[in-house]
Amino acid sequence: MATTTLTDSTFERVVQRDGIVLIDFWASWCGPCRMFAPVFEQAATANPDIVFGKVDTEAEPNLASAAGIRSIPTLMVFRDGILVFSQPGALPAKSLDQLITAVRGLDMDQVRAQVAAAKAMSA
Question: Which positions fall inside the Thioredoxin domain (predicted)?
Fold first, then answer.
């Protein structure tokens, strides 16, 4: 599956879906972003059951701001609508594969319980 361009109007709907969603926040002028793009594309091809989204921070500055993007590239991973990973910097292919394996292996009942506990603590 090829990557999907995400916009302010499609972002929420895509990340709230069931399953795994990886999002690459990037810009055309960013050298590390251009270096990471083929790695991200290759992972998308190798994992057709995962949504691989791309957000052009130049075209979508409000979305980048709302997501708290301070450095690009930034990779965010959602599973079943829950943010489970967010990190700036370009990952090598092996690290991206390891991240995908780790996200696949998450116990989402445990993750949901941790999210609920964190919300209760902050209330």
Answer: 1-105
Global confidence as pTM: 0.92
Active site includes 33? yes
Catalytic residue among 15, 22, 23, 33: 33
DSSP 48-72: TTSEEEEEETTT-HHHHHHTT--SS
Judge whether 47 counts as a catalytic residue.
no
Please name each of the domains of the chain with its CATH number. Answer: 4-122 (3.40.30.10)
Q: Which of 22, 30, 63, 77 is catalytic?
A: 30
